[in-house]
Amino acid sequence: MLLTSVILVLREVLEAALLLSILLAMSHYLELKTRWIFMALAGGILGSMVYGAGIGTVSDTFDGMGQELLNATMQFAIYGLLLLVGILLILNRRGERRYLPLLQWSMVLAVTLATLREGSEVYVYLMAFRYQADLLQSVLLGAFIGGGIGFSIGALFYYLLVGLPRKRRLIVALTLLALVAAGLCLQATQLLEQADWLPAQSPLWDSSAVLSENSVLGQLSYALLGYEATPTRNVVAAYLCGLLLMTALLLLAWAKSRSQP
Which of the pair, 76 or 32, is modelled with greater confidence? Predict the structure, then answer.
C-alpha cells in the first residue's frame, strides 16, 4: 500500500504543484504580491473536502457518470482560465495595470479548481482507509512521501523559472502553460470517453514499455506534457487542438501587444 499511495498522491499533487509553480513565476514576473495564492489554496482545499464528502451523490447523477462529467467540466474550465491568464499576461508585459485584477482572479480560480479537482481524489482515497488501522499508517506515509515529492518538483520548477533571464522567463512560462493546458484537454476527453459521451476507441499505440505512467518520470510527463501511454484518436486530437488553439491565441495577443505604442 505504501507504493500505491506514493504513486496515487504524487499523480494528483504533481499536476497542481506544477500549475501553481508556473503561475507563481508569472506573478514574480509581473512583481505581484502572492497573497492570492493563499485564498486559492484555502478555497481549493475546503472545496475538495466538500466534493470528496459528497462524491457518492455526485456520482449517482447522469446515470452514474456525474463524477466523470463534473471533473471533465472542471478540466475544460481550468483550460479556459489558463488561456485567459496567458493572454492577459502578454497584454500586461509592457507595464499596463488595467488587466491585473482580472488576471489575478483568473489565477485564483484556476488554482482553486485544480486543487479542488486533484485534492478531492486524495481525500476520497485517504477516507477509504480511515477505519483500517492496519493499513492506515502505510497509506498516510505513502501520501506524505508522494505529496512531498510532488511539491518539491513544483518548487524546483518555480526556482528554475524565476532564475531565467526576464525575456526568456515569459516565453518559457507561456510554453509550459500551453503544455499543461493541452494536457487538461486530454484528461477531460478521457473522462468523456469513460462516461460514454464520446465513442470508445482502441489505443493508437502503447508506449508503457518505454515510459511507464507509474514511474516518477512518467508522472512528471503526465502532469507537464499530458503524457498518455495508450492514447486513443479522440485523446490525441483533443491534445493537439487544445495546444494549437492556445498557441494561436497567445501569438495573436503577442502580436497585438507589440503593435501597441
Answer: 76
